[in-house]
């Protein structure tokens, strides 16, 4: 590296804009191009080092070695304690810096966290990465964590990146599926989760998601430049997700070739391409080609490079020193961080049910049971555990414990003998032998749900995996890695036999030469086994439980199996074997506590009806066992609260790909059923009384603040923690409103008998909803209800107030064209892209599908309507009033075949009997017709010389 060049850009006393402009002006076009990849090239002549985006730090530093592991993100949010979440972000940021100082090329300071996708559907494979189904609470927690990561000083500690923009909640087909996002859901739900961290400056970077939104790749969303960057007070860095750029011409086939696609991405706001790992040449070649073909200008590159350089400047890279230069490896997993990990794990624990069995009262002997009772799981974005305090270990420090995993021990038999494993710790190929030591034929069978099983050889305690050569070997510590190769499905065969199907590859297990088990592409060549039960895990666990004072069953998910990145769940039930285990243990000892450790909700209906107590937490990190023991024994009050609804069945959920939470009555905001456990739910070991509800005003106006006071009293005999939650409901509106919506909360700890007056504030402007008739947020004139309580369904006090807001008039069809996407209701259509760069349209997917525009004021009458349409096959659109099936037909439009779906043309018709205020329906008589807008011409009123209005 050459000696640093002096100049304005190295002078920390100069304005940031001047420093960036100075450095940008010194770079050649080729040097600028080299800064557009994840692995940014060094510029030796200017003394610029290499720079890499993307250090994973979702709940602690990940992938780079041993570091403090905190509870998963959904667990952190369950604390309902933003300051604690911020402290975890601070500790994580410090450890990132420590690793960066040790290895600058391996640990970059651009951190890819937090994830602020609202947890719309609990089946999403990445549920544990987010914070809440509520967008406002997601924004609060995401801002807190990002603020901790970046620090409070002008120089950033790290540069946090919000993931994943936008409308990303499915892993199945995630690179080719399009999230159908109506305007209200976009503005009131999705964008609302991202805005706070950007607007506050807590996050300084953004990562678009893999999916498409309304038919357009999220990476090309006009919202990146048009909305998100307008929130930011300073330059925002936009980085792609891994390998996403190639999808534009590959899986998505949105553009014809990479130069065209990459040019479009840069113009849409992408600054850094995460493509081809640390081999940037191919990506840079496409950018050079785009420049050569005139698809990009140097000004386009300057814009992207400026965003990148701004972050590097703010990280202090070009300053003589930074406030973080003294951070060393000593901060990693230091005692203060261990204590913080324990505190976070403790506060994240949620008591779902308790009939009085908890807290435990000096039991002499506890049976600790279950597949998660003596292990701590690392998810894909976890750090490497420096140590692991399991549930068993934490409880064993308090009293005598007996342990059993509660999994079945089995043998696999076929005509040639039994499947046999090697004893060596490094494993050996599994072979079928006619005879041998019985212990070598035994395997522990783990049921992780969704039909996914793992086999652990008793011979050496290692899990069975399929190697690259397809041979089955018992050589792994458990399911692990990006491509999990240690799980199988048990496919039923005739007469009670089964075949093993390898989940990762879809191939069956067959019998090779010398009796070796290996994968085969031919299902007919699958080996057929008889599963012999050596020991029933449920029965053995029940026998252990029967002799104990209390049984603790620790169940849940494996974070890398049946619900993880690339894999959604299909149902909400506990794995069948775990469900059977809970029932068997409870039958043997009614004093059973179910402890669930998982990154997502389960529909534990039987347990709710039968088990005395149920406790949930996310996977809790290195101090989980201490935290759990502290709560179970009553040292700590269970202060966690749920941040998403726990449903009774997946049948209560809409299709995973349906993102319209308003139309489908999804999340606690619109759900009208009775959940298993509601949003905000969680019990304390004490009881709280609510009284003296006080509202600062009975009528408020936009721009004002409503102050809501309440008195909370601990009326129990123990100190405890309460999370006081404030919800509102708009009681009258032009549109469908949430049943309830969280507006504020306060976490309080009260001694027995202690009373505290709490005041929470509601910004009246936050009561706005997106009005599709005007294309903006509106605070509507309406009565509202305020509700204060312990959860969204446990409301203790209610009050009423009125908002002196706007009255939304009927739509004026003559003032401007009606955008088809701004409809009020729809059926049998999808939202799609009107053009590759910007604009949304509506495409009919079912004959008879329709869009509705409520309360259209045609005044004295409409003379004609002109629709902007396209259809490669042609079709007919019918305009009806007040009903899509039986309403009066006022017009019909024939749509001629177009060159492609972006080849829009005007198609019109005269209108008859369209006068006064009516609901207007546009009915798609054929599938495949796309409409972007409708323009109306008013009839001339009798005796008038001008228009009808």
UniProtKB/TrEMBL annotation:
Outline the extent of the CBM6 domain: 816-937
Asked whether the keyword Secreted is assigned, the reply is no
* SUPFAM superfamilies named in the record: (Trans)glycosidases, Actin-crosslinking proteins, Beta-D-glucan exohydrolase, C-terminal domain, Galactose-binding domain-like
A GO molecular function held by the record: hydrolase activity
Which keywords belong to this entry? Hydrolase, Signal
Matching SMART domains: CBD_IV, Fn3_like
Q: Which family does it belong to?
A: Belongs to the glycosyl hydrolase 3 family.
Instruction: Please report the name of this protein according to its UniProt entry.
Output: Glycoside hydrolase family 3 protein
| Organism this protein belongs to | Sphaerisporangium flaviroseum
Cite the source lineage: Bacteria, Bacillati, Actinomycetota, Actinomycetes, Streptosporangiales
């Amino acid at each position: 590296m050459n000696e640093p060049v002096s100049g304005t850009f190295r002078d920390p006393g100069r304005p940031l804009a001047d420093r960036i402009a100075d450095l940008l002006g010194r770079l050649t076009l080729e040097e600028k191009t080299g800064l557009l990849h994840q692995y940014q090239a060094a510029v030796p002549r200017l003394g610029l080092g290499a720079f890499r985006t993307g250090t994973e730090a979702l709940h602690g530093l990940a992938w780079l070695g041993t570091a403090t592991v905190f509870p998963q993100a959904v667990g952190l949010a369950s604390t309902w304690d933003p300051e604690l979440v911020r402290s975890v972000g601070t500790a994580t940021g410090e450890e990132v810096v420590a690793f960066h100082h040790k290895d600058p090329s391996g640990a970059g300071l651009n951190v890819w966290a937090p994830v602020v996708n609202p947890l719309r559907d609990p089946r999403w494979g990445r549920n544990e990465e987010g914070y809440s189904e509520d967008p406002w609470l997601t924004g609060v927690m995401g801002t807190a964590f990002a603020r901790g990561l970046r620090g409070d000083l002008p120089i950033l500690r790290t540069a946090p990146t919000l993931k994943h923009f936008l409308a990303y909640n499915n892993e199945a087909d995630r690179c080719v599926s399009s999230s159908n996002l109506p305007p209200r859901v976009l503005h009131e739900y999705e964008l609302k989760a991202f805005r706070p961290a950007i607007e506050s400056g807590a996050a300084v970077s953004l990562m678009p998601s893999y999916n498409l939104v309304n038919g357009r790749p999220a990476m090309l969303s006009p919202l990146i430049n048009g909305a998100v960057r307008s929130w930011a007070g300073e330059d925002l860095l936009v980085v792609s997700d891994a390998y996403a750029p190639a999808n534009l011409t590959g899986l998505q086939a949105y553009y014809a070739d990479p130069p065209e696609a990459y040019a479009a991405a840069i113009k849409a706001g992408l600054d850094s391409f995460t493509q081809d790992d640390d081999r940037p040449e191919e990506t840079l070649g496409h950018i050079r080609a785009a420049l050569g073909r005139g698809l990009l200008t140097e000004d386009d590159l300057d814009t992207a490079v400026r965003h990148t350089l701004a972050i590097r400047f703010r990280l202090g890279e070009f300053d003589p020193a930074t406030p973080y230069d003294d951070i060393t490896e000593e901060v990693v997993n230091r005692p203060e961080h261990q204590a913080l990990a324990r505190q976070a794990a403790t506060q994240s624990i949620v008591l779902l049910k308790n009939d009085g069995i908890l807290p435990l009262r000096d039991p002499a002997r506890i049976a600790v049971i279950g597949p998660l009772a003596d292990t701590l799981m690392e998810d894909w974005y976890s750090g490497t555990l420096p140590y692991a305090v399991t549930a068993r270990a934490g409880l064993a420090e308090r009293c005598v414990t007996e342990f059993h995993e509660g999994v079945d021990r089995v043998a696999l038999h076929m005509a040639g003998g039994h499947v046999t494993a090697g004893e060596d710790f490094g494993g050996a190929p599994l072979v079928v032998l006619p005879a041998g030591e019985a212990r070598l034929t035994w395997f522990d069978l783990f049921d992780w749900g969704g039909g996914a099983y793992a086999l652990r050889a008793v011979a050496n305690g290692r899990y069975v995996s399929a190697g690259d050569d397809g041979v089955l070997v018992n050589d792994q510590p458990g399911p692990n890695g990006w491509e999990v190769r240690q799980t199988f499905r048990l496919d039923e065969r005739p007469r009670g036999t089964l075949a093993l199907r390898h989940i990762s590859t879809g191939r069956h297990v067959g019998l090779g030469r010398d009796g070796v088990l290996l994968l085969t592409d031919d299902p007919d060549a699958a080996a057929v086994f008889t599963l012999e039960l050596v020991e029933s895990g449920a029965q053995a666990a029940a026998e252990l439980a029967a002799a104990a004072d209390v049984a603790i069953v620790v169940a849940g998910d494996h974070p890398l199996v049946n619900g993880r990145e690339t894999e959604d769940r299909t149902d909400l039930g506990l794995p069948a074997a775990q469900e059977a285990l809970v029932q068997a243990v409870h039958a043997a000892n009614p004093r059973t506590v179910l402890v669930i450790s998982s990154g997502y909700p389960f529909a534990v209906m039987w347990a709710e009806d039968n088990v005395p107590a149920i406790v949930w937490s996310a996977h809790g990190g290195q101090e989980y066992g201490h935290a759990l023991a502290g709560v179970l024994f009553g040292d700590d009050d269970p202060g966690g609260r749920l941040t998403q609804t726990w449903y009774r069945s997946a049948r209560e959920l809409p299709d995973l790909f349906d993102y319209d939470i308003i139309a489908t009555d999804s999340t606690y905001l619109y759900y009208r059923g009775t959940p298993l456990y509601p949003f905000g739910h969680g019990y304390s070991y004490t009881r709280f009384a609510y009284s003296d509800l006080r509202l600062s005003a009975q009528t408020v106006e936009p721009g004002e603040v409503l102050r809501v006071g309440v008195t909370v009293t601990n009326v129990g005999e123990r100190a405890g923690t309460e999370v006081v939650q404030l919800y509102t409901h708009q009681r009258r509106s032009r549109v469908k409103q949430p049943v309830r919506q969280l507006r504020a909360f306060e976490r309080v700890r009260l001694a027995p008998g202690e009373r505290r007056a709490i005041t929470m504030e509601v910004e009246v402007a936050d009561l706005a909803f997106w009005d599709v008739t005007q294309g903006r947020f509106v605070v509507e004139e309406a009565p509202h209800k305020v509700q204060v309580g312990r959860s969204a369904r446990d409301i203790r006090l209610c009050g009423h107030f009125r908002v002196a807001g706007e009255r939304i008039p009927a739509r004026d069809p003559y003032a401007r064209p009606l955008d088809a996407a701004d409809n009020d209701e729809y059926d049998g259509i999808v939202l799609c892209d009107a053009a590759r760069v910007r604009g949304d349209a509506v495409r009919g997917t079912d004959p008879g599908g329709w869009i509705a525009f409520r309360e259209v004021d045609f005044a004295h009458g409409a003379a004609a309507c002109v629709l902007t349409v396209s259809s490669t096959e042609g079709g007919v659109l019918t305009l009806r009033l007040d009903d899509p099936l039986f309403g009066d037909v006022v017009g019909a439009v024939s749509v001629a075949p177009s060159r492609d779906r972006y080849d829009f043309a005007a198609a019109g018709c005269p209108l008859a009997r369209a006068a006064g205020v009516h609901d207007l329906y546009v009915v798609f008589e054929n599938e495949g017709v796309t409409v972007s807008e409708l323009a109306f011409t008013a009839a001339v009123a009798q005796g008038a010389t001008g228009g009808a209005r």
